[in-house]
Model the fold of this input.
Amino acid sequence: MIVFGVETSCDETATAVVDISARRILAQHIYSQYAEHAPYKGVVPELASRAHLERLPILAAATLKDSGLTWPAIDAFAATVGPGLTTALVVGATFAKTLAVAQGKPFLAANHIEGHALSPLLAQDESGHALAAAFLEENQPYLLLLVTGGHCQLVNVTAVGEYQTLGTTLDDAPGECFDKVGKMLGLPHPAGPAIEKLAATGTPAIPLPHPKHDKSLDFSFSGLKTAVKDLLAAHPQTNPADMAASFQTMVAEVLARKTGLAIAQTGARHVVVAGGVAANKAIRAALQQACAAAGAAFTAPPLVLCTDNAAMVAYAAGLRRTAHLSTGSLATAVLPRWPLGTSPQA
Done:
């Protein structure tokens, strides 16, 4: 099955062509709307929607050309219908539905979070292929740590479409905190890469609270964000690099500690991290150490599959299709809130 995917849930406009059975990305393009949102230090939904409208036709044509295929060769068209920004989701879903109708092919409604959850199975590196083979052919579950701008969850993945949420954030997600702390430090949007770069020049010596330091698998980051704000207000001469390093180190420590607890509670033998925040090298290193200490294998997808992309959208929708699970229809409306593991409405 060859699936053409579209992703427009937030501020990345992306298209991709994926061979589902071969677990191979034939072509993909991603446009990150940094320039559009930089003046506002955050994502403006209306600007995001306009940028999607402008870029999608260009990216779709380039992706199809790079894949070496023609429209009739595409077996299905998939788009993220949730969760995400309503107006942005409408743009991508409408675009993909139009292509599906024009070609007389199925439309597949994709869950953005499920795309992240299954993206490591599409990884092109050696560990990614090993995990995909074990999961798809031997049906072995894995423990997923999903860390994005809007989500932070520990999920037990037992099969495509079967997810048990073990813990979730009670307030802010890590990516959201990175953006807010970056704004406090006067860094450009998006703040995640900027904080990582700045932290490399600082020392993590500033004492910060360890939020939600208990035995539960839930997360909390709002207190950490507030502590950074209060410290900067009380000590305006604080070295920004040291604060960036201290904040990043604490986030990594929290994620690694909770993941270690989840391994102990579930007996997981394989841990996967996915989502935009998974691109942070310090966080990856802390998670890798926690997994090694617990005797669990660790997999992180390539950086291009960590941030929002259409390859994961096409792949997740295609896997659901081949597993005979619900993939919605042309009547499926966008779902700004769509819990992982639930089916689309139509």
Residues 2-122+305-322 form a domain with the Nucleotidyltransferase; domain 5 fold (CATH 3.30.420.40).
